[in-house]
Amino acid sequence: MRTTLTAIIGIIIMSLSSMSYAQSLHPFVPAEFDVPSVLETDRFRLRMLTVNDVVKDFEAVTTSSDHLQDIWGPGWPDGLTLEQNLIDLGWHQKEFQRRRSFAYTVVSLDESRVVGCVYINPTRKAGYDAAVFLWARQSELASGMETELTTAVKTWLASSWPFKNAAFPGIDISEEEWQKVKEVKR
Fold first, then answer.
1. Closest by alpha carbon to 173, among 138, 139, 123?
2. Which of 7, 44, 148, 185 is the least crowded, having the fewest Cβ atoms under 10 Å away?
3. Is residue 77 reached through a cis peptide bond, with omega within 30 degrees of 0 on the bond before it?
4. Beta carbons of 127 and 181 less than 8 angstroms apart
5. Where is 136: in which H helix or E strand?
6. 11 confidence band (pLDDT: 50, 70, 90)
7. Please, how many CA atoms are within 13 Å of residue 118, restricted to the half-sphere of its CB?
8. Nearest to residue 22, comparing CAs of 122, 125, 132, 163?
9. What pLDDT score was predicted for residue 130?
10. CB 158: neighbour CB atoms within 10 A?
11. Is 75 left (phi over 0), alpha (psi -120 to 50) or beta?
12. CATH number of this structure's domain 2-180
């Protein structure tokens, strides 16, 4: 119960931080920026995460619980229900539409399976203009999917997004070091 509560508090804090940033005078992306709708490789496709993905996303999340807890710590997604997942996906979809944060589902090319997710979020951390979190389905780790996804997203951000320095906490900077980075007002 305590670890679930800790995970929920962490998600709420991240959400509130994102909301307060989004309500600031500093937009996450410029108004004239056309947010990319798709990134496709020879192995997977990224597109906006929507409520229509709820069943496939839920299956990917719940079968990847151990890996997700390795990334974000104990708690989530323990106890996640299909209904709660639908609410979460609706929130991500609305945030994307409002250009406050961008959640992409990672699907197989035939769209039969969700194989991961990418979250591009605003941050107040000094020296960074975005924080990117991602995961690949646990069953795809041995094939190098998460490494391939990371490389593709980094290349995509550099070529197609307006960010000067996106952070990849847990990948390029440890969570411990990320937490130590000073926050600045935007």
1. 123
2. 185
3. yes
4. yes
5. strand 130-136
6. very low
7. 29
8. 122
9. 96
10. 11
11. left
12. 3.40.630.30
Q: Residue length, the chain? A: 186
CA distance 156 to 134: 14
pLDDT at 13: 39
For residues 21 and 145, give the distance between their C-alpha atoms in angstroms, rounded to a whole number.
31
**Other beta carbons within 10 Å of 154:** 15
Please write the tens of the pLDDT for every residue from 27-44: 899 999 999 999 999 999
Mean pLDDT of 107-117: 97
- Residue 167 bridge partners (DSSP): 131
Token look-up 């990849």 returns 168
Q: Rounded to an integer, what distance in angstroms lies between the CA atom of residue 185 and that of residue 27?
A: 13
Instruction: Write down the pTM of the prediction.
Output: 0.85
Residue 102: which of 118, 113, 125 has the closest Cα?
A: 118
Domain boundaries, the chain: 2-180
